[in-house]
Specification:
The chain has helices spanning 29-43, 58-72, 77-87, 96-107, 136-156, 158-164, 169-192, 200-210, 226-260, 266-270, 304-313, 318-325, 354-370, and strands spanning 53-57, 110-113, 118-123, 128-129, 132-133, 296-301, 328-337, 343-351, 378-382, 385-390. It is α+β, with helices and mostly antiparallel strands. It has a 5-stranded antiparallel beta sheet. Strands 1-3-2 form a 3-stranded mixed beta sheet. Strands 4-5 form a two-stranded antiparallel sheet. Helix 1 crosses helix 7 (169-192) and helix 11 runs antiparallel to helix 12 (318-325).
Length: 401
């Protein structure tokens, strides 16, 4: 499903943040310049301009998160929530936007915003980190990570790229894995530069400890659906592993090639040892015309292998879910608001072989039986494709929400 948090570390306050917060003064240019040099030393690229930095207070951050979150939903927040509930990604969660704003706000200490092209430090959050002053090693970790995003933006035009993926959540998630994986690896290597004698074996030991997610995931609030927390941390953990593999094979030059041709699906991140492939397109031609009579088209999106395995894991053990999702070669889902505010959808999933499509059909049926939030749906195999419908006319498909 769509990556709702294109806010995390890349653009936690993105377009809604002012170029300069009222009354805020630029942070010391010398400090930003110092950490920018550390990024350049690791990454082998030079900044083509200085990165301005500004403080933003926690209240302004929350306002911005709320505004940007609403903008990122493909339909209204309430309708979007109902599509996620309808397909079984989340439980029906009251006050979902409030919970997400509170959760995301706790994850942000500093962020780079690609639209005003400015580095922000959250006042208060930046003052302490686990009760200690934000200085020394902790400060270097945060600054080098976020300044790597600034370097990426100068080379990739991130705001344009993210907006171009508005209707392809899986591809946006794959791009986020590249961005966060690279920023995390630069951060790790910059930190190790201060440790005499630190070599690759030390990096192997500390990399899992410094990838955001392994430490903070356990502290995620219970009232936030796992879909959002899992999707937030995926680019840091698996994305970092993906980029580290790339660097080990071809150095930073191989990452430069990824800048020119980024990964196109979460399947590339999940299976970095496999040859990359172009996901199938045009799986639902004119999706706006495919809903039941009288229904209103809401949006279309791509769930990807990550979304498919997450959905299957809600009713199956992870190894079974992951094995059934492997072989994904593309998907497209279209959501509709039907009579009585019911949610209907058409979802076509392409697998690599007819046998894989058959295994997915069987796994989806078993997962739905044990997933408490699953709703009635019809599913059939058509060669290498699986077609899943709910609330649609036809045999087995006229099930309401």
């Amino acid at each position: 499903m769509r990556r709702f948090l294109v806010l995390a570390a890349l653009a936690a306050a993105a377009a809604a943040a002012p170029a300069q917060a009222p009354g805020a003064e630029d942070l010391l240019p010398a400090k930003v310049a110092q950490y920018a040099q550390a990024v350049e030393s690791v990454r082998g690229h030079k900044f083509d301009r200085a990165v301005p930095a500004t403080e933003i207070d926690a209240a302004r951050l929350k306002e911005t998160l709320r505004s940007k979150l609403a903008e990122s939903f493909p339909a209204s927040p309430e309708e979007t929530k109902r599509t996620l509930v309808g397909i079984g990604m989340i439980e029906d969660t009251p006050n979902l936007v409030d919970r997400l704003v509170d959760f995301y706000g706790t994850q942000v200490i500093a962020f780079y915003d690609p639209e005003p092209r400015r580095f922000f430090v959250v006042r208060g959050a930046a003052a302490t980190l686990d009760g200690e002053a934000l200085e020394g090693a902790a400060e270097k970790l945060i600054y080098t990570h976020e300044l790597t995003h600034a370097l990426q933006d100068q080379n990739l035009d991130l705001d344009r790229r993210i907006k171009a993926l508005k209707d392809d959540g899986d591809r946006a998630l794959a791009l986020q894995c590249l961005l966060e994986g690279e920023a995390t690896l630069v951060m790790i290597k910059a930190a190790l530069a201060d440790l005499p004698g630190a070599d690759e074996s030390v990096e192997e030991q500390i990399a899992p400890l410094l990838t955001a997610g392994s430490l903070e995931k356990a502290n995620a609030p219970k009232d936030v659906p796992a879909y959002f927390t899992e999707q937030l941390f995926f680019p840091y953990a698996e994305g970092t592993d993906y980029v580290r593999r790339t660097v080990k094979k071809g150095g930073w030059a191989a990452v430069d090639r990824l800048w020119a041709s980024p990964p196109t699906s979460s399947a590339e991140i999940l299976h970095p040892e496999d040859p990359p492939f172009a996901p199938a397109t045009n799986l639902l031609p004119r999706p706006e015309t495919m809903g039941p009579e009288g229904a209103r088209f809401l949006y279309a999106d791509t769930l990807g292998e990550w979304g498919l395995r997450f959905l299957l894991r809600r009713g199956l053990p992870s190894p079974e879910a992951d094995a059934a999702a492997a072989g994904w070669r593309g998907d497209r889902v279209a959501f509709f608001a039907a009579k009585g505010d019911a949610i209907a959808y058409v979802w076509r999933i392409r697998m690599d072989t007819p046998e894989a499509a058959g295994r997915l059909l069987e796994a989806l049926a078993r997962s739905r039986k044990t997933n408490a939030s699953a709703r009635p749906e019809a599913a059939r195999r058509e060669g290498v494709d699986l077609v899943v419908t709910s609330g649609m006319p036809g045999p087995g498909g006229s099930t309401g929400r």
